[in-house]
Design brief:
alpha+beta; Ribosomal Protein S5, domain 2; eight-stranded mixed β-sheet; Ribosomal Protein S8, Chain: A, domain 1; 3 domains; 15 helices; Heat Shock Protein 90; 30% helix; elongated
Length: 618
């Protein structure tokens, strides 16, 4: 008996669907791409229960005849390729002929379509359930196509159970529609989730106008326009100023010949362009378009068609990097993170020769500290600064990220974690000595010398206070004389209804304000004199990831962390002795006084033994 057999067509289509149809957003992506390829001027997307129950895409494109409509659901049937030579220069978004049969094999699909041929008296109505054609009949229909996908994965329960919450799936769908709305401003896009309109972007003539439609007023305020070309290759778009940072890459939109892509070459060029002016853990905001001849890019690298290969990667990399660098460097008033100046320190070698060792260099094991006359001090070196000899250790000095926007929350540092609080801080034994660089409290206790980061210390205090208040529903609020509105991106609109109760629980009185906007009437009193608009924007931005991956308690934690970080005492802020004493006493009352919610240390201790050892007393 033969061991190798040809799989039934329905089973083969289900397997193919596993590569193409990952979730409801994958279906939306494929159907929207078909609508764009059909020359549509209007695309309407409607979903219910996050696309699990219904996905409907309607367009006013060229439509199909009855024969073409039936043939479109055959495997590898397409109108976009004729010969193998066409593969080397693909100018359409779809071309494989796999999407429709794959989608139809895992859903109950209906199609209504009518060609733009004036001789076509009626349209065509198809019904396909689980890959099996149930009916074909004429229907009265306008020009264009409507595809309704119901009960996705109804016959593949193992795939269906891995889908996320309705809001999460709606958020993914909103991202895909947003991408193609940005790439095609001349097309009207609408997105409806249940009874709510998440996006309604009428046709406009420029990308700038479309960005305004999608992201609202203010999005472009902190962006600079970029452009560049190299022969037939052109790049253009918008990129954020270095101080406009995100904690994830969700605000980065890349398009190659109007195709939404994820590409390591473009990402690498972007990171390199911001390397000297943005912390490594932060992400810039980018809307970037790359146009090049179709035969210089291979879009046939992955079934989902989001991964591509450039024939000349180095030229693409250099063009993107240089265009972004030029845009942000020419922008007036852009603050840049300068590399830390290298300081040199004089050490006496075993051969009695004095050499100067750099901060980040290796201090020789045989070196011993000397205190040179001021005249021997090299230019730019402070004679009052010194460095202890080390055992061949390399010292590194990471950049400070004061507002923590580039840092991730460490769940074991949150209030509800099972982490042990560790050694308690005893305020009665702490003696405040002073403040260093208006940023660090210098103190001592029975065990040694303490250096306390005033910003993260206050952040820990405020976070635990707000988290406890939220837990007990006792958050103090502060009404605003002038309520303000915030425009939401479509994917934020998808989950805002779920988040509003938690925002209200944390002290924000937030209400829907028509369309994709919310109005804020009060804020938590703990936020002090923070920029409330930026605080709420930061919370929503950070929730984009949190709300998909963790429970409601973590959403509350994210709100509490963001509010605490914004309201905390900043670095470079002089404090009185009384204020520093109060800060230490409040820190001692927290559950985890040694680390902030991001995992950064609050206190550094130099023990008595270590100090005496360094001075050669033990």
């Amino acid at each position: 008996m033969n061991k190798i057999r040809v799989l039934p067509e329905i089973l083969a289509n289900k397997i193919a669907a596993g590569e193409i149809v990952e979730r409801p957003a994958s279906v939306v992506k494929e159907l929207v791409e078909n609508s764009i390829d059909a020359g549509s001027r209007s695309v309407h997307v409607a979903v219910r229960t996050g696309g699990k129950r219904l996905i409907q895409v309607r367009d006013d494109g060229t439509g199909m005849s009855q024969d073409d409509a039936i043939l479109a659901f055959e495997h590898h049937a397409t109108s976009k390729l004729e010969t193998a030579r066409d593969l080397s220069a693909i100018a359409t978004l779809g071309f494989r002929g796999e999407a429709l049969p794959s989608i139809a094999s895992v859903s109950r699909l209906t199609l209504k379509t009518r060609t733009d041929d004036p001789e076509a008296a009626t349209g065509t109505h198809l019904e396909i359930h689980g890959g099996v054609l149930r009916s074909v009949k004429p229907v009265s229909w306008d020009k264009g196509t409507e595809i309704s996908v119901r009960d996705l994965f109804f016959n593949v329960p193992a795939r269906r159970k891995f889908l996320k919450t309705n809001d999460t799936e709606s958020g993914h769908i909103a991202r895909h529609v947003t991408h193609y709305a940005l790439a095609n401003p001349e097309i009207r896009f609408t997105l409806q989730s249940g009874d709510r309109i998440l996006l309604d972007a009428v046709a406009v003539s420029t990308v700038r106008e479309r960005i305004y439609q999608v992201f609202g007023d203010g999005f472009l305020d902190n962006m600079v326009e970029l452009s560049g070309s190299a022969g037939p290759i052109r790049v253009y778009g918008f990129s954020s100023r270095p101080y406009e940072q995100r904690t994830n890459a969700y605000s980065q939109y890349f398009f190659v010949n109007r195709r939404m892509v994820r590409d390591k070459v473009i990402t690498g060029a972007l990171r390199e362009a911001y390397r000297r002016c943005m912390p490594a853990a932060a992400y810039p905001v980018v809307v970037l378009f790359l146009e090049l001849p179709y035969d210089q890019v291979d879009v046939n690298a992955h079934p989902a068609k989001t991964e591509i290969r450039f024939h000349n990667q180095s030229s693409i990399y250099n063009l993107v990097r240089q265009s972004i660098e030029r845009a942000i460097s020419q922008d007036a008033g852009v603050p840049e993170f300068e590399p830390q100046k290298v300081r040199t320190y004089p050490v006496e070698m075993s051969g009695k020769e004095t050499q100067y060792v750099k901060d980040a260099g290796i201090v020789p094991e045989t070196a011993s500290l000397i205190y040179p006359p001021v005249s021997e001090n090299p230019a730019g070196t402070d004679p009052q600064e010194f460095q202890f000899p080390s055992q061949g250790k390399v010292y590194e000095y990471p950049a400070t990220v004061e507002n923590h926007k580039a840092l991730r929350i460490q769940t074991d540092m949150l209030l509800g974690s099972k982490r042990e609080s560790g050694e308690p801080l005893l305020p009665e034994s702490v003696r405040i000595l002073g403040q260093y660089r208006d940023s660090y409290i210098i103190a001592s206790d029975r065990q040694g010398l303490l250096i306390i980061d005033q910003h993260v210390a206050h952040e820990r205090i405020l976070y635990e206070k707000l988290a406890n208040s939220m837990k007990n529903r006792e958050v103090e609020t502060q009404g605003l004389l002038n309520p303000f509105t915030i425009d939401l991106a479509p994917h934020q609109s998808a989950f805002i209804e779920r988040v509003i109760p938690e925002l209200q629980r944390s002290g924000f009185q937030v209400e829907s304000f028509g369309g994709a906007s919310i109005i804020v009437r009060s804020v938590p009193a703990i936020a002090g004199e923070s920029d409330y608009r930026e605080l709420l924007k930061e919370i929503l931005e950070n929730l984009e990831k949190e709300e998909r991956e963790v429970d409601i308690d973590r959403i509350r934690d994210r709100i509490a962390v963001s509010a605490a970080c914004r309201a905390a005492i900043k670095v470079n802020m002089p404090l009185s002795m009384e204020k520093m004493q109060w800060l230490v006493e409040q820190l001692a009352r927290t559950r985890i006084p040694t680390s902030c919610p991001h995992g950064r240390p609050i206190i550094l201790r130099f023990s008595n033994y270590e100090i005496e050892k360094r001075f050669g007393r033990v």
